[in-house]
Specification:
Radius of gyration: 20 Å
Largest sheet: 5 strands, parallel
Strand order of the largest sheet: 5-6-9-10-11
Helix content: 25-40%
CATH superfamily: Metal-dependent hydrolases
Number of strands: 14
Strand content: 15-25%
Distance between the termini: 26 Å
Order of helices and strands: HHEEHEHEHEHEEHEHEHEHHEHHHEEE
Shape: globular
Length: about 400
């Protein structure tokens, strides 16, 4: 292997190197000038929605994992807002059967914290533990402090992490975008930042009390960043993620279209800057897409009535490379830590030789009609980005090749 090509390998470990070398020897790169490409360990997204079972008109395990592979991901953790909800051994195994049959990358399901994600009765955490990556009620915050305390105690005993969507229902007031300048100017009902950070602060207190490993989903508010920063300084076993859209856009970038609606919402410029600072200083451990596909009809009803959620697996690296790396905010090595190294380390997901190859200086225009995901809603439609994936390898075989 040439020294020039080795210089293009970013954070490739001794585990991944033999796999890369084998593909070189077998000529898989023969149609590329390998010196023009960068090689990374396979990315890992700990927060996706593949919608199956129950909502296969939005996405399936097959299409979701294909989208993941195109985005350079070789591992993805699927959230439990499904039908049936994976709250028992039986429902979780039904999902795992589909994964085993249809997934082209490693897909690891969450088990729900509460039965039906209703927040009323604890799920069978003990029964599900061998077959789920962690426990989450994502899409809904656990409203009861006692319920969350019990969940943390039981999860700790099982060696499982609690992964929380934090939202105080009593503070939502029917909101659907950030309670900020855009909402005020256009007569929309807003979602206040308190609905996020107050529940985060509660959970951090419980995590400190119980010693449970705790992870906060898709943080969006400056107060949340500061609360997690303080908790880490106090020794709380906490990590967190944010999405690329929160690092790039604010509520003042909104348009009256469903493709700009997600939960939590795009917040203000001070929040965006706080998230960037959290990325730089290590308060925020990883970037996750919260890939949440819906049908075209569900996303065609404007900001108020469209479903919450956007897709992100196929654009995440390009967005982060374009807006964070090429602008000098973070290094390429830091981005790979956020997309691969840190999520795998925190969630105990080994790479096993997976890698992905990118043409970093290739430019393209985001066209949702070309997505492999069944979802098409992205606020970045029409944007010009740098970096295109040309190859993703999982378990020793190509799962995405650009020219095929």
């Amino acid at each position: 292997m040439s020294d020039k090509l080795k210089a293009k390998m970013v954070m490739i470990s001794d585990t991944e190197l033999p796999s890369v070398s084998r593909f070189l020897e077998e000529g898989i790169f023969s149609r590329f000038n390998t010196c023009e490409y960068a090689v990374f360990p396979g990315f890992c997204d700990v927060h996706v929605h593949f919608r199956e079972p129950g909502f296969s008109y939005k996405e399936t395990i097959k299409t979701g994992s294909a989208a993941a592979a195109r985005g350079g991901y070789t591992a993805a953790c699927t959230m439990p807002n499904l039908s049936p909800v994976p709250d028992s051994i039986e429902s979780l195994r039904a999902q795992n059967e589909i994964i085993e049959r249809d997934a082209s990358v490693k897909v690891l399901p969450y088990g729900s914290i509460t039965v039906g994600q209703k927040g009323e009765t604890m799920s069978d955490l003990e029964g599900m533990a061998p077959d789920c990556i962690a426990c989450s009620d994502d899409g809904r915050g656990v409203q009861s402090e006692e319920m969350m305390r019990e969940a943390m105690i039981r999860a700790k005993a099982l060696g499982k992490m609690i992964v929380a969507h934090c939202e105080v229902n009593d503070l939502l007031e029917g909101g659907y975008i950030h309670k900020g300048e855009y909402a005020k100017a256009h007569g929309h009902r807003g979602i206040c930042s308190e609905s996020e950070y107050l529940q985060v602060e509660r959970d951090l207190r419980l995590a400190k009390e119980t010693g449970c490993a705790y992870h906060v989903c898709h943080i969006s508010a400056k107060e949340t960043v500061e609360a997690i920063r303080r908790a880490k300084a106090e020794g709380v076993d906490v990590t967190c993620e944010t999405g690329p859209h929160y690092l790039i856009l604010t509520d003042m970038d909104l348009k009256e279209e469903g493709r700009f609606k997600m939960n939590p919402p795009l917040r203000g410029e001070e929040d965006r800057k706080a998230l960037i600072e959290g990325i730089i200083d290590g308060t925020i451990d990883m970037i996750a897409t919260d890939h949440a596909p819906h049908s075209a009809e569900e996303k065609s009803k404007g900001l108020e009535k469209s479903a919450f959620g956007i897709v992100g697996l196929e654009t995440c690296f390009s967005l982060c490379y374009t807006h964070l790396v090429k602008t000098g905010i973070i290094t390429l090595e830091k981005l790979i830590e956020l997309l691969s190294v840190n999520p795998r380390k925190r969630f105990g997901i080994e790479n096993g030789g997976d890698f992905t190859v990118w043409s970093l200086e290739s430019e393209y225009t985001v066209d949702p009609e070309k997505f492999l995901s069944m979802g098409r809603a992205t606020p970045f439609e029409g944007d010009t980005l740098f970096a295109e994936c040309v190859l993703t390898v999982h378990n020793g075989k190509p799962v995405y090749e650009a020219d095929k």
